[in-house]
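cron nightly-structures :: item 1 of 1
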Amino acid sequence: MNALNTFFFVAFPYVAVVTFVVGVLYRWRQKGFTVSSLSSQFLEGKYLFWGSVPFHVGILVVFFGHVTAFMFPRATLAWNSVPVRLIVLEVTAFVFGVTIFIGLTALMLRRFTNPRIRAVTSRADLALELLLLAQVVLGLWIALGYRWGVSWFAAGLSPYLWSLLRLSPETGVIFALPWVIKLHVVGAFSILLIIPFTRLAHFMAAPLQYITRPYQQVVWNWDRRTIRDPSSSWSTARPKPTEQK
């Protein structure tokens, strides 16, 4: 058991981080075009909206919540010293965790039920989605079964993560945690490990310039329902532009 703990909480985090950094840099320099979401919106848009929006909103809130507790553990504990604020934070985190679950479930159903989406799905992307789903389920389980995670994360896991950055792992706390929380931590590093091989690497090329650029109008040359219908065949002919009246 000690050997497994040592591997997963001492060696594995460094393997995941090195693989992530080297993999993303290699992909960016050698296959730069693939560092994108490779959007499938042109293939199907209705169900994509109901899956993508809650997933992205939820994951951004939860992710930055974790980052805040990691970066500012003392400030987090000070904020949580007032019970009402702690409860509000816990409820908010749980609600957005459910939002991630709903959005991710919708995206996976879309991927499994639409033939055209399945055709552009790689095994790595599928593995990542399953891993993300397991991670979300574990997170919700922890939120319900091990209350006040915002506080014990800042008090226990944050020092452990900082010790990894100092290249001097302090494993006393992490070794003593329940197995559910350990799986959640290992899952986080596993996601980091697999990112360079999936389309999730697109977050490295976030289009922040979209915030300030002029509005762009997209014009469809084909009927959207026709081109998105899995029963319609592909055409080798380039669609003609819509005639201007």
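cron nightly-structures :: done
The chain has a mean pLDDT of 84.
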